[in-house]
């Protein structure tokens, strides 16, 4: 869907659990809550327009506020000193009541004070419009900032309920905020079309927001400490949702309703769609984008779109389009394709959700920024960087026959590839070097287990991203895979690479342990295996 200029409106994530009164018609499903596609308003103010955001505290007020900030809130921070300084700055002026506040209240204040900083960053970015050769990178950043404001606002609302589930929700959303900020920084840093000055100014803004996002994660870890079973590293970048498994268990039961579960289990002829997309004019619309646009904003019931045939278009489901479901005839029968890519997109993969091939380098087949997504019986076909997952809650089942792909997105990213066939397509067989993975970011985590690895896999198995970047923070593992590409004798010798031999260790990466699938997958109708084969 083409982006359109409009004012930025907060779109709450909460209060959308109503069930649908409609059904749909076919067997390939994608559940979508929303993805931010709204375009930025034309702000022109630069960083110095709002200097009050950056006034230093006076010595006396700083000392008083600092003495009242619980230091344990920053125990898990990447930089505890910086973390405490940021909290102290945020609570300046609240000294009379600080002694009565809980850790949750401190976090709420900190988050509320973070929102104006994000707006200011958006103003800075928009100030370069008309003076930049890479408007896409700038627009992408503004979209990400807009979504971050929504996530923060909902986190504050959730924290005010003071329940375990609401803290878990807030933790996931704040993790997504950090992901958004880092993605914007990547967009700007990797752009070849921005001037050095433009990059420098925006990078300074984003580094500040990233530091504050890490501080918010440290704070929520402090007020919602992990159980003794959780043994994550204490680095700020590692502040992934310790309660992700609990969150997925609790949330999935509420947002995948009984009616939706029946849709997942239904036979093709048992499903009725709200609208149909058909090129020949026999349906309600001839393009997928038109059908998505027809979906009511902020719907509290499921809106089902049946798509018939192949469509060459780039489809975005905006953040106001909630409770949208797309259904098709099968992964090789209903196809949405396009040609956006890293090369033509100015060195960015964030907005390249298509299937362009090798000459255009990376081309994301699907980007998921929605809060709650189920992808079932879908094939994602792209040259590189096929999936970009920003979603706190994402279930991906049956991408190919007999394959389970599990992803816990955002900071505590972990992917298990179990019972899969890793083989080359006929046009790439014996012609392209292939690796199991490479660390694009710090704390990359991937495990291949009980899968067939074809002879396309290079003997070393894994590849660097850029020199020794992230090699000391990654966790890559292999367990019980079979030939011809599963021989680990010549694998990399990085400290974070493991040949797993203990079944008990491998079980930690199974459906049962990684996402506690036994608690909630039965209700979805999606086939799975809990443990090892």
UniProtKB/TrEMBL annotation:
**Limits of the Pectinesterase inhibitor domain:** 64-219
Q: Transmembrane region positions?
A: 28-49
List, alphabetically, the SMART domains matched: PMEI
Q: Which domain of life is it from?
A: Eukaryota
Set out the biological process GO terms recorded for this chain's protein.
cell wall modification; pectin catabolic process
Pfam families, A to Z: Pectinesterase, PMEI
Family of this protein:
In the N-terminal section; belongs to the PMEI family. In the C-terminal section; belongs to the pectinesterase family.
User: Which NCBIfam families does UniProt cross-reference here?
Assistant: PME_inhib
Q: What is this protein called?
A: Pectinesterase
Instruction: Name the source organism.
Output: Macleaya cordata (Five-seeded plume-poppy)
